[in-house]
């Protein structure tokens, strides 16, 4: 069972089985990833289930921060 398949199919109910397999895999990185997901499993399930994301909002915030930094850097020093 692939994690990508769970995301694409939007089937959060398959997540538990995948996480159990990841824990039994013996691969440190995969086990660590599964443990990290477990820390906020409700948010992970919602992210799989919902089509909405805050990606656009985060992108706009980063763009505004970058613009703000540029404006601050181009201002002449006040003497």
TrEMBL record:
Transposase IS204/IS1001/IS1096/IS1165 DDE domain: residues covered? 11-67
Tell me which InterPro entries the record gives: Transposase_DDE
Per its record, how is this protein called by name?
A: Transposase
Task: Please tell me the species this chain comes from.
Answer: Acidisoma cellulosilyticum
């Amino acid at each position: 069972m692939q994690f990508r398949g769970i995301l694409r199919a939007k089937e959060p109910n398959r997540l538990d089985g995948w996480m159990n397999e990841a824990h039994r895999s013996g691969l440190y990185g995969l086990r660590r990833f599964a443990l990290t997901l477990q820390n906020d499993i409700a948010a992970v399930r919602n992210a799989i289930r919902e089509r909405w994301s805050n990606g656009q909002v985060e992108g706009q915030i980063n763009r505004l921060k970058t613009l703000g930094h540029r404006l601050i850097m181009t201002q002449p020093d006040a003497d």
